[in-house]
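Shipment paperwork, digital attachment
Item: protein structure file
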Amino acid sequence: MEKIYPVCQKCTTGVLVPLSDYGREGATIIFKAWVCTNPHCGFHLRIDNGEVSIGKAIGHSQK
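Attachment content:
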């Protein structure tokens, strides 16, 4: 089955791909964020504690 991801509405060049993470208790959080594949775009959506944040600065983890 082919997966089709949505086109980024900001740059229309990249596509939005889902990212998953782990919660504080170690439970999997599926689709915690959606990120544009175009490195020059930087558009992303995130879910943190039930709130959706759009376009805040992206940081790099030291992990």
